[in-house]
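INFO  loader      accepted 1 record
INFO  loader      residues=606
INFO  predictor   begin
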Amino acid sequence: RLNSPTRYFLPSPHAPKPSKPTDPARSPAMESAGNDRRDAALGSLAVLPDELLCAIVDLLQPTDIGRLACVSSVMYILCNEEPLWMSKYLSVGGHLEYKCSWKKTTLSRLSLCSGNSELEQKARHFDGMVHLLYVCSICLVYLPIHTYFHAGFNSLFLYRRWYRCFTTLSSYSFDNGHVERKDDLSLDHFHSQYDGKGPVLLGKLAETWPARTKWTIQQLVHDYGEVTFRISQRSPKKIIMKLKDYVSYMELQHDEDPLYIFDDKFGETTPALLEDYRVPHLFQEDLFGVLDYEQRPAFRWLIIGPERSGASWHVDPGLTSAWNTLLCGRKRWALYPPGRVPGGVTVHVSDEDGDVDIETPTSLQWWLDIYPHLAEHEKPLECTQLPGETIFVPSGWWHCVLNLETTVAVTQNFVNQSNFEHVCLDMAPGHCHKGVCRAGLLAVPGKSVRDIENHPAGTMSAWNHNDMTRAEKRLKGSGSVRASNSANQCASFEFSDVHESLENQVFSYDIGFLSQFLEKEKDHYTSVWSPTNPIGQREAREWLRRLWVLKPELRGLIWKGACLAISVDKWYACLEEVSACHSLPPPSEDEKLPVGTGLHCFRQCD
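INFO  predictor   done
INFO  writer      dumping tokens
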């Protein structure tokens, strides 16, 4: 929020200090500009809010956007928005070479650029266009406003988005936050105090890594400038860039949600980077390691991103745990425990295949627009990660990351004995348990929520709506919080059917509690496999079988996980029945888990 500074932002010592923060909606610039031009410029479309108009324009093809820009001064503004052209490029994907602006980059990618550079650079001028200054009340610095205030037209929506594109986080103060910092933690101490229990910031784990001195932007460009890396962005298309081109983009861009390198194949394209670090001793147990490299899910990533970039709210895939070591720059972390959906976030779980989809604002937008309005008891755990520090994120924990400056980091996800059963549970067919693992008791329609720790009293709204079908109920969780453009957003969960009401229960991330929500009528062999599971159906069976053979000391744990993930107890009962029917010897201890598809025996028993 522009008029709600938080304790983490410090004013510039050289900036003037106004006596009272000013909301841009009530600023002299807004009031003097008025909005008379809007009705004439938009005609019948003037009844639509600017946010919806921008969403509609985004549905058009680039050539149609160009034509629409010629209709009026307001349409010219809406059709030349950089976020619009960034969206158009990301919908195409491919190898990216940024050309100073997203409009020029997109038109060049689609071979729509004019050969006349003078025409490309010539701006369309409308009468009454002015250039204004506005004092930003968070950083207390003067910011130019180019197109969002001019005679007869203003747009708070466009201004807020523009502000997020140009705001700087350099004055973001260091804050210890609430996450514990530990040095020289022993493996036993880690398992007893933190593994599966809570996040922790760890120092000295990377002190001897060559990456501590070699993984600077300058050195990486020198060594790997011509190497192509994968780019992360909320886009269905794959984006790749050469490292030297990406660094050039970082220096030129003013994006609200900048692209950042998030490459899980860096070990293949640049194997030398793997020699610059090693997995810390606290995280070396990884039960996915029994699979061949091509069989196991993605598990390690190189992360490079500029100021304002970051990861929006999410739970790590498959309920794995993770560690993240920062080599340069600063990151701001926010975390909620399992089952506590952050404000402004919506979780959807398909009742057909268990596909999990999370709608969330960008990391920067959440910090600016939602965080300042959270009550103290609704705020997350927070910390600022410094170079050389490693943060541990346990299974099921929600987290959001904001880069306060250009950062380079490496991260890995893993499965160990602490989270093994949770990972197996998440592979089980159905959708009820997946919802509860992420959204807690908000995922249970008809539930009277009395979880004071995760959902404090006074934050619940009425959440059974008569106008909603049984197949789509929305449950409101973290109370109403104001988001951008004064829209009301709240944590919610879209869910389908549930067969029992758990009155007076309190949410727990304990596997015994979560397994209550498995849908008993569904089993591994006859149900649809969720596309968001970290590995495929055959790979899951192969993984558990290999663990069974290679880790006999863990067979008690492996059996519990296999019962959750692949209904191995039902499979084994069928196997015993078939053996008895054909007077065959009972299966040996090594034969208790299925090999191959595992379907023939199960169907024959049926």
